[in-house]
Amino acid sequence: MIRLPIFLFFAGLIGLTVGAECPLGWTFNPVSSECYLISTRLFTFDESVQYCNSIGGKSVSIGSYSEKDAIVAFTNSTLLQPWIGSRRNTTTTKFYNLNGSYFYTLMWTTNEPSVNGDCVTFKGATPSGLQVTQCYQLQPAFCKQTPALCNSAVIGGSTTWSGTFQSPGYPTQYYNNLDCRYLIIAPNNTYITIEFYPYVVEEWYDYVDLYEGNSTSFADHIAEVSSTGWARGYESEGNVMNVRFKTNYAITDKGWLATWKAKKDMPVISQSGTNGTMVSPNYPNNYDSNDEQKYQISVGFGAQVNLTIDDFRTESRFDYLNIYNSSTQSNSTLVATLSGASVAPFNYISPKSYMSMKFVSDGSLQYKGWHAYWSIC
Ligand SMILES: *[C@@H]1O[C@H](CO)[C@@H](O)[C@H](O)[C@H]1NC(C)=O
Ligand SMILES: *[C@@H]1O[C@H](CO)[C@@H](O)[C@H](O)[C@H]1NC(C)=O
Ligand SMILES: *[C@@H]1O[C@H](CO)[C@@H](O)[C@H](O)[C@H]1NC(C)=O
Ligand SMILES: *[C@@H]1O[C@H](CO)[C@@H](O)[C@H](O)[C@H]1NC(C)=O
Ligand SMILES: *[C@@H]1O[C@H](CO)[C@@H](O)[C@H](O)[C@H]1NC(C)=O
Ligand SMILES: *[C@@H]1O[C@H](CO)[C@@H](O)[C@H](O)[C@H]1NC(C)=O
Ligand SMILES: *[C@@H]1O[C@H](CO)[C@@H](O)[C@H](O)[C@H]1NC(C)=O
Ligand SMILES: *[C@@H]1O[C@H](CO)[C@@H](O)[C@H](O)[C@H]1NC(C)=O
Ligand SMILES: *[C@@H]1O[C@H](CO)[C@@H](O)[C@H](O)[C@H]1NC(C)=O
Q: Which of 81, 165, 184, 359 could form a disulfide with 241 if both were Cys (CB 3.0 to 4.6 A apart)?
């Protein structure tokens, strides 16, 4: 069940131009995820190889049966059979692909390979397949190139703190045979959090892998994105993460949307004992942009924390201090979100012997922040 027709149908409706993946004059094939071109000029075999190179492509070598099907659909109405990048080695008499890949002997058309030549053309009309042709004959060149669909995409940069990106064709349909790399680069001294939602791919066969740094080696593997459950949020240790999306030859789905954020490396500030003081970063000077500082207070069993904020000034709504009635920070332990110019004085007594706080600032407008002191009661 390859849902291609659906893709092609919707593509027009939502303004996704299927041809936009390829340079002008080339045709994108969503089955092989390659761009193809058949020349109108005619060439000998050797000239056709040169021609393809000169326009940024390669002669077509057929890499799989699904690619053969794609090529059939592409050539079934052409009158002249185009060259395929395969020829006979006259020493061994065996055929090989110019690009060194495996030559599929089952792709010959009926009664082939004959002895009538050492080069190969492709017959699109039934019975379709490879056909031996004299290398000096004049036939169209058949070129392909891998589109810049998703490869080498660098996302972010040294001053970018967040962003989104998606699988090619999202939200309609991604393509088969993809090997996409997205390199996320965040500012220095940050780590990256990333969330995939929605994430709809062909289970087991199409998947996203995450790696630490500019790597795809096993040692740097962070996780394979899970298609089920809640575990779709992941984290790097450093400020560079490689995201790799691989799909197989059949069945595609709507794909995924990734949202990433750079987070500063800010160790948690923890205090215990009988009293203490806590302040926003740099206080009484202005805090920085994109801060996310966590604080923990725990006191002796049976005691409670009596926290007083006596100075407070942040950018209203966007820079804020969260107070939690637990050491765990979540919506269900959040007791107050403080922001703006009219917070102090503020007092809070924890129900248990521990509590925590989180200070968050955005990318614009910094103020002096806040000052708090606490004691047990
Ligand atoms: C040769 O082309 C085939 C078909 O596209 C491809 O799968 C294979 O990776 C290529 N091999 C090399 C060595 O470029
Ligand atoms: C060529 O392939 C296209 C797409 O698969 C198909 O619609 C068309 O009927 C085929 N034409 C011939 C002559 O086989
Ligand atoms: C043909 O095959 C022989 C034997 O394997 C090899 O030495 C030679 O390089 C091949 N020729 C070409 C043009 O690949
Ligand atoms: C970030 O770190 C790299 C490597 O340590 C360094 O070359 C670069 O200058 C730093 N960039 C900034 C903006 O500090
Ligand atoms: C990532 O690694 C690849 C392969 O090692 C290299 O070609 C590329 O330039 C690197 N990209 C960056 C942004 O460092
Ligand atoms: C505050 O804590 C310090 C030790 O961190 C202690 O010496 C001092 O007595 C405490 N003050 C009060 C009023 O409990
Ligand atoms: C909490 O601390 C404030 C400020 O020091 C003080 O006024 C208040 O009485 C304390 N509350 C309790 C229950 O100890
Ligand atoms: C937590 O609360 C925020 C703000 O109300 C909301 O946007 C977010 O979806 C909530 N998260 C969860 C996991 O419920
Ligand atoms: C902590 O705060 C949450 C949310 O305000 C509240 O539902 C919960 O009962 C509180 N827990 C305690 C121990 O007070």
A: 184
Ligand 5 nearest-atom number relative to CA 183: 13
296 C-alpha vs ligand 9 centroid, how far in Å? 17
Ligand 3 binding pocket includes 77 (Cβ within 6 Å): no
Specify whether the CB–CB gap between 256 and 167 falls below 8 A: yes
Residue with tokens 């995820």: 33
The CA-atom distances, in angstroms, between 170 and each of 252, 254, 286, 342 are 11, 6, 42, 45
d(CA 241, CA 235): 9
Going from N- to C-terminal start, the domains of the chain cover 34-145, 153-264, 269-376
Q: Decide: 77 in ligand 2 pocket, CB within 6 A.
A: yes
Name the amino acid, one letter, at 100.
G
User: Could you read off the pLDDT tens digit of each residue along the chain, which spans 377 residues?
Assistant: 333 333 333 332 333 344 457 777 888 887 788 889 999 999 999 999 999 988 888 999 998 888 898 899 888 888 899 999 999 999 999 999 998 888 988 899 999 999 999 999 999 998 999 999 999 999 999 999 887 777 667 888 888 888 888 898 888 888 888 889 999 999 999 999 999 988 988 888 999 999 999 999 999 999 999 876 565 789 999 999 999 999 988 888 889 999 999 999 899 999 999 999 999 999 999 999 999 999 999 999 999 999 999 999 999 999 999 999 999 999 999 999 999 999 999 999 999 999 999 999 988 889 999 999 999 99
Q: Report the nearest-CA residue for atom 12 of ligand 2.
A: 76
**Which residue's CA is the nearest one to ligand 7's atom 3?**
308
> Ligand nearest 152 Cα, by number?
5
Give the position, in ligand 9's atom list, of the atom nearest the Cα of 326.
Answer: 1
241: exposed, middle or buried (C-beta count within 10 Å: 0-12, 13-18, 19+)? Answer: buried
CATH number among 3.30.230.10, 2.10.10.20, 2.60.120.290, 2.60.120.280, domain 269-376: 2.60.120.290
What is the fold, at CATH topology level, of the domain defined by 34-145?
A: Mannose-Binding Protein A; Chain A (3.10.100)
Q: What residues does ligand 6 touch, defined as CB less than 6 Å away?
A: 273-275
